[in-house]
Design a protein that fits this description.
Layout (H helix, E strand, L loop, with lengths): L13 H9 L3 H14 L2 H7 L2 H7 L7 H16 L2
Helix pairs in contact: 1-2
Length: 82
């Protein structure tokens, strides 16, 4: 089993990460999304989440303040086409 690098402290496989993201457990989905947005490289973020999924989950994510602000700016820019 290969654990994605952004989950260095949890023994989850890539398949399990995708299963959580597609599942109905919103708490787990938000937790994984937070880990991805905080710790994954940008190219890898979009291997797991679509822009639409990020926008849907974003208001509910508890993230590091600096990271959340950076993502807010990015989402605003992408939404306005800048």
């Amino acid at each position: 089993m290969t654990t994605p690098y952004f989950l260095w402290d949890y023994p989850l496989s890539e398949a399990q990460v995708n299963e959580i993201l597609k599942g109905k457990d919103e708490v787990k989905k938000r937790w994984i999304a937070t880990r991805i947005l905080e710790s994954a490289r940008l190219d890898d973020v979009f291997k797991y989440l679509t822009l639409s999924e990020i926008k849907q989950l974003f208001p509910y994510l508890k993230m590091k303040k600096s990271v959340k602000k950076a993502w807010e700016r990015a989402l605003d820019a992408w939404s306005s086409g800048k």
